[in-house]
Write a structure and sequence with these properties.
With 403 residues, the chain is α/β, with parallel strands linked by helices. 39% of the residues lie in helices and 16% in strands. Helix 4 packs parallel to helix 5.
Length: 403
Amino acid sequence: MTTCSRGHLLLALAACALAGPAVAADDTVKIGVVAAESGSFVSAGHTLPAGVSLAVKEINDAGGVKVGDKTYKIELVRRDDRTDIGTAVAATQELVRDVGVKAIFGSESHDFTLAMAKITQPAKILHFAGNSTLDTILTDAAVAPGGDAHYLFQSEPREFQRSGSTARGVLSLLQPLVDHPIKKSVIIAGNDATGQFLSSYYIKALKAEGQEVPDIIFYPPDTTDFSPILTRAKSLNPDVVHFWYNGDSTLTALPQALELAVAPSYFLFGVDPGIWKERGLSADVPVAMSCVPVCWGESSNAKAKTYFDAYFAAGAPKGVTSSVSLLYYDYVHMLAEAWTKAGSFDPDKVVDALLVLHHQGVVSDDLSFNAHHQVTHATEVCVADPEGKISCAMQQPPADAPM
């Protein structure tokens, strides 16, 4: 090889490097999902690829996404993290380095997302995750250009908002069904990073609503016999026992709680009333339920039925937390809109476009990101009375965090 030809080759390689990764020759753009499609958190994990897949299908069926002078189809690449953080990290590395995705959705596990962000952010990959823990890292400095989280977006409300709207909704629905004032709430939560984080906010939200709340009772995530934990809870004479946060564990614990008559009312976080009805569940006391963020089995949200009809028709199972899919579905459409608005796949231009978008989504008619890359919207809370009647209401979040 002559010196001249080597020089031309180096110049060509340098030009390609400056141009960044190219869109596939067949005019497709790839996005990735990392989620627990197996393992202990599969009930929530399987909802992510289902929700993202539905959005991708809708966009592609409508002709694709127009970026600049070309129209692209979206290709979704799924990876199962098997509810293992090491697998989630490895999957993220593969999607970024080998597959060449433009964006990643997931994971549904809070600590997994933080680990994944260590890969997506230096690589300038748009990253959407429905984890309220992101509030702790989405600071002014982090989201600024060049910051550690400039390409990271939180597709779930801040935890003080979600916990605040949930607590207010639960108490307002249960109180008319309990024959005395509800004054004492006991929280039973899974003892893992997510359970500890979420319950730390929920206890503040309950106290802000005037509740007396003893120390949280934690249980190991793999618990099946809740008798000792429930006996301890009963000794505290609660008006409400709040099961927070794993829906599968909650549905194991509730029948045991009812048998022991632990409390005159209960709350099941992340359990859809559709599951309550399909499994033929019942209780001789009122039981509140919340959805993350909108229910599929019974809803006061006008758009929910249309969305979930399409979601289940596409093959998604009717699960305890199927509504978690809505922490991702709307944001695929927003990403496509941002690509079109930016006229480019350049990640910095896409971030700028996302921050000025107002999207008519399922969870909100005006869905948008704030300066910290976070969204705000209501949470749906339902209650089943002892006769089996279910009623639901959308509860707006508080404006400020409780002191």
